Amino acid sequence: MEILIVGSGNMARGIGLRLVRGGHRVRIADREPDKAADLAAELGDSASGEILDGTAGAEVIVFATPYEASKQLAEMWASELAGKTVIDICNPVDFTTFDGLVTPEGKSAAEEIAAAAPGTRVVKAFNTTFASRLANSTPLDVFIAGDDPDAKKTVTGLCLDADLRPIDVGGLKHARVLEAFQLLHMKVQDQIQGGWATELTFKPA
Amino acid sequence: MEILIVGSGNMARGIGLRLVRGGHRVRIADREPDKAADLAAELGDSASGEILDGTAGAEVIVFATPYEASKQLAEMWASELAGKTVIDICNPVDFTTFDGLVTPEGKSAAEEIAAAAPGTRVVKAFNTTFASRLANSTPLDVFIAGDDPDAKKTVTGLCLDADLRPIDVGGLKHARVLEAFQLLHMKVQDQIQGGWATELTFKPA
Description:
Two copies of one chain form a homodimer. The first copy, chain A, has about 200 residues and is an alpha/beta fold. Helix content of chain A is about 35%, strand content about 20%.
């Protein structure tokens, strides 16, 4: 599959590494093409870098960008995204308080992004997996929420290819809970071992 | 410490076992005194059973009851609970849909219980730990939310005594997220190994 990852930060790197290992072709797009090229070089021959310039050719698009930027991408690309699968990974944390979210009461970032690009098959995934854990090869739980069954099937398949454990938590509304719980995961990092490399999981007994 | 557990179901059993092993004195209270006595007998010499009849003598009270019953207990005992530490463990799941909660939008069961008994030091804990996992002796993450620092300190201490890993996620408002995430934990049991014995955890790397 050809996957366009927007952004070239740590999460783009972690997801890109997993997808390339899973046998997929990864395009990294960034407003700064040098950054995209650098990350693509690190990901290897199945990856390429490009300047941010549309989604043509991509079967799946990953917004590996902060919430505000992801929303802007959805608005900017609204017409070309219709019918496509977009993976939203963001955590709309209020970094001024680190004790709440910046999304409107009762709404998730994923729903806001979906509303900005009607007809897009938005799937929430990877918001609870820290980049450092994606970058190595241990299995991780990936919680998936979305309203489009085919898009969720696609994301589930990508996870399985990448040695991840997909867990379908239901409709896109449940992204609210994934985002809210990840805030708790982030804000207690000083209390738990292995800070910023911990794993939110439904660990088997 | 003398702890009154209201209820004699699986969660009362799991928490009771942990607390007794942790060196505490446990009283089991139930509307049906035989059930309370049976569970107390199973818990051993540090436990006793009684009919549900107030909280006198107890330093900490655990509502090991469903949401509606817990709210009724709070209303019924409002005056005697003021200043006391109450642990609310409930999950206000809408069992007709198994896809939502019965609490008012934006409110947690814990906050509703606290509102029903003003002045009570309500702490949310143990709502994400399945009874079967509490009943054995492996460590488990216990997520704790509450507005009263002393009450949280007490609950944190009880957890440490019981070989559990307390994680303070902040104020009582965060109980909303603990409850909502536990619904997801419950509803995906058919997708994950080790059903109803899995562990919601921030597993270290």
